[in-house]
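Help!! Second protein's tokens look totally different from the first
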Amino acid sequence: MTSARRTVLITGCSSGIGKATARLLAQQGFRVLAGVRSAAAASELADAELPNLEPVLLDVTSDEAVAKIVQTIEASSPHGLYALVNNAGVGLPAAVELTSLDELHSIFEVNTIAPLRMIQSCLPLLRLGGGRIVNMSSMNGTMALPMVGAYSASKFALEALSDTLRVELRPWQIPVSLIRPGQVRTSIFDKARDALNAHRQKIPEPLKPGYDKMYARAAKFNERGAKSFTSPEKVARLVLKVLTTKHPSPRYHVGIDAHGMRILNAIAPQRLIDRLLARVMGVFKRVE
């Protein structure tokens, strides 16, 4: 099947990785259904020079919205769906103790439950189109770091679902690939900055000696991430590779930090990793 007949559905295309991926795939001749949350985002993404880039309103947390986009694909793509790229995600940093259960639920709803909702809904179309699934994970999906415990937990769960699906879908030859980016230069760091500032103001007084320094260090690392060498376009090129290779790999890493974390996780004992992370966060010693 030529690229011109291949329909790809991507979630989270308002900005960052999703937007870069949608544009690149459209430039390569794919028909791209680019999910966005608002009409304003859809208008901004639309490009007269890329008529095969079709912004679509899609709330991945809504059963009704997902069912509607599936109906759209069924009506407009007789060849089914060539690929589903689950990119939509949120990551609001906070200490686990100070993360509300509502915040945890919201993170899991977008990062874990929504991709599964998309997969379950799109599988009939993927079977028809000889398609494949790409789930955007993270380096935090293999190593849980301080201040992003909820985000890491949601990505660990996504990794587990992906590993299981990869075997369960073998009878239909539907590959499932995970992409694990390191820090990528996107607007997610702006949202993280706001979340850190808001949470830091709410640290209970008795806990400030332990948590205040961690929030300060997290804010510092967040600013570094905002200036990361890894661009959304680099991740987009990797997605293109996953979609065009005959036999995609189960997992891909992108970014020096992602590769470094992969190596550290493979060779270092957990106790050593914990000590290193405690030093990095400035909380190696017991608070008085």
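Here's the second one for comparison:
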Amino acid sequence: MDNYKNIANKTSWKDINWSVFYAAWGGWVLDGFTTFVYAFIDLAATDYLLPATGISLKLTSFFLFAFFAIFLVGWGTSFIFGPLGDKYGRIRMLTLSIILFAAGSILSGLSTNAYEFMVFRFITGLGIGAEWFVGGTSVSEVFPEDRRVMGAGLFHTGFYFGFLLAAVAELLLEPFIGFRGMLILGGLPVFFIVYIRYKTKEPEKWEKVKQIAGDKLTAKESLFSIFRRGYSKTTIVASIVMSAVILGLYSGTVYVPTVIEDIIKTFVFKLPIVDFVAAGGSETAVFTIIGCLLMPFLAEKIGRRFTLIFFLLLMTVSVFLIYDIIFYLDNLYYLFLVLPILGIGGADFAVFTLWSPELYPTEFRSSGFAAITTFARYFAAALIFIIGYLALLVGFGHAVAYTIIGFIIVIPLIFLIPETKGNKLPEKILSTKSEKK
């Protein structure tokens, strides 16, 4: 059923628990800000930290990837908050996750060498990773069915509004506070979000399951359930597909500021680099927000599978053009022409914000969402280390362009994930004995 037909006769926007949405969305904004702040200052931070650690600057390209890989390992480890979110509640885990990533970001800004920086980037990733799946699960459970699809799109815009704020901070603040100040800035708004979450109640769907299941609703049961009959294939396949999506973000989108800085350096006359970097980041963020708002309508019209494929194809084309061609042409004009395609393609993440909660029932929905969005990080982290090594051999641009191979490989696998267009969120209380076999 089309969730957008006769919507005026259905639930009102006033029926939605907006406090949960604002808490989840606000945290996702801060996550996006913290993630992309690093994208703007990664080169400056690396150029400082490597000599301070006694490491040659010849390894800069490798460590640009290595720092992101460590961040992804932290994100992968955040899976532990999935089962805990099923047992103890979504909002509690949201609060804990944002405290972790804020602390990690502030400590990253205080790092004195590359090794400390890696540890604190791991902590940052640990907190940021939990924010997506716990926040996305919460939003899916508080929106009525006829509004839920749009709610997923609205929620996911938060990450890219954070990207936009990071671009503004890069333009207005970075020249004065440097890379350390930018990283510390990413952790300061935590106090506001923690206050909001303290005032926010758990989603009613989870409260109902908790009341009925009682002590039977355990983190262990939640974890095992996503690998039982009917869910194991979905969990494994969706995680593999997510690996390619993650690789596209953390080796494609995040390195756009680095590309701009490199191109600007080739110009004979001086230009304000920070202005162009901020403009490129803002353009990418704006078009990704557009893609997130477009996603719900596409998902209802052509289904979850083909919507994801559409965005992956946009990522394939844009990453190839930017890193394999434009990067070596040193042409800023061409880059800004292609960034809208990359931006809209970045909404591939938003599809999982909608799709993942639809694949699992309330009792282990957080664990399922967590598995899809975190297990893939370990695989992506390993690949990013490989890409970092390739950058030393074939060059930065060509190495990043290789990530499109992942998009092409996983597209057929998408058809192994259940199509949930028109379905309601699955609801049941505890797994049956047949499912445990």
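Reply: Different proteins will give different token patterns, so don't panic. DSSP finds 19 helices and no strands in the chain.
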